[in-house]
Amino acid sequence: MRVQGTYTALVTPFRDGAIDEDALKGLVDLQMKGDIDGITPCATTGEASTLSYEEHERVIEIVVKEVDGKVPVIAGTGSNSTKETIELTEIAKSLGADMALVVAPYYNRPSQEGLYLHFKKVAEEVDLPLILYNIPGRTGVNMLPELVARLAQIPNIVAIKEAAGSVQQVADIFRLTKGTFSILSGDDNMFLPMMAVGATGVISVLSNMMPQKVKALRRAFLDEKEPAKALSIHVELMPLFSGLFVETNPVPVKEALYYMGLIEREVRLPLCGLSPQNRDLVRGLVNEYGLLSRNE
Q: Is 93 assigned a catalytic role?
């Protein structure tokens, strides 16, 4: 199974401590109008770690219903507990998700063999295509290319979202899997260089705001075979690549979406709002790119 395209790591909008379901539906509508290739709810950008089981289920349910089969839904279902990961993945499947994004277990810091056994167990227990998610800056463990190559041999493990920040690691995965395993960039600023060494797509934070522009970057490099055009788009987006990570994701992108008039800026503790300086920075970027809706 080939996984390719531009997927949005969707934020979870809150209002007064609860999921803002109307705003969530509006975000999905924006993505569909932007011709996105797929949507990923309940991952890092969706603040999955602070969602209750019931909220996790409800977000996936809403996204699946709003998408209505037009594009794939890749539900985040990872946990630091193998049992809980299996339960969440089963729920996602029952709700109609097309794939599951399964992050490497965090905090426990398992060995490479422990990681292998974890993902193997989830794949055996739930008949759903799985995308591995490597983000060592958050999990404390790095899924080495040799491990990914082993896991790629399991039929329903179909891709990896690679967010280790290493072009070499992407190239090694591509080499070890002989280019047969789909690699998705997990970092917007690394998307272009990762495509150069074998990545087939991205699960993007920036596409919450500008789905068509992120898709254009991929299309220019992989479909149109115009690297100079892709580089031009990359350079155009560079201020956003850095600005949306000026503090911990998803705080800046939620701030940007607030200034676009799409959601409240609310995040859940232990995350908190941007500093005044960074709030001004993000507002300035939203204005610079012609997306400003709120004048405050």
A: no
Residue range 69-119, pLDDT digits in tens = 999 999 999 999 999 999 999 999 999 999 999 999 999 999 999 999 999
Give me the catalytic one of 7, 93, 116, 161. Answer: 161
Residue 189: closest CA among 246, 271, 132: 246
pLDDT the model gives residue 281 = 98
The one catalytic residue among 7, 93, 116, 133: 133
Q: Collect the ranges in the chain with pLDDT lower than 70.
A: 296
Select from 56, 15, 30, 23 the least CA-distant residue to 266.
Answer: 15
Residue 176 vs residues 146, 170, 179, 198: alpha-carbon distances, Å: 7, 10, 8, 12
Output the pTM of the full model. 0.96
Is 161 one of the catalytic residues?
A: yes
Cα–Cα dist 75/114, whole Å:
23
pLDDT of residue 1: 82
The CATH number of domain 5-225 is 3.20.20.70: yes
55 neighbors 268 (Cβ within 8 angstroms): no
Q: What residue spans define the domains of the chain?
A: 5-225
